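Box 3.1 A note on notation
Throughout this textbook, protein chains are presented in two layers. The first layer is the amino acid sequence; the second is a token string describing backbone geometry. Keep the layers aligned when reading.
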Amino acid sequence: MKKILLLVVLLSSIGAYWYFEAKGKHSTEISATSKVEVVNAEEFSKMIEAGEVLLVDVRTPKEFQEGTLEGAVNINFYDADFETKIKALETEKPLYLFCRSGGRSNKAAHQLSKLSFTKIYDMKGGVNAWGAAGKSFVQPE
């Protein structure tokens, strides 16, 4: 009985560790010194409407073809040359990233924060949040 109880406690501890470890890796909390800012769909919309921006959809090409934000280019986060393609963009302009639900763009934003972009904005909730906010999508050319 003691062995079973010990096993249950051990497995529970391991499960809790994995849960909080995974949650921490997908956290959208940003340090004050970071170039990355996570914004909701409404804020993201206002920011990209304000002028010429580098708007990057980091979803797969198939997802991109299903509909995207106007003016977005597709650079697939899962491509081996993802970072190389991003580096080809103008680093003086702020970079606006989004994906389906916010996970990939958040990972991409933090990966790219080491590059020379002045500022990186990540849309919290991705296109799911964009659609829920009543925003429209376009078909890529």
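Residues 6 and 46 are 54 Å apart (CA to CA). The helical segments are 2-25, 41-49, 61-65, 82-87, 103-112, 126-132.
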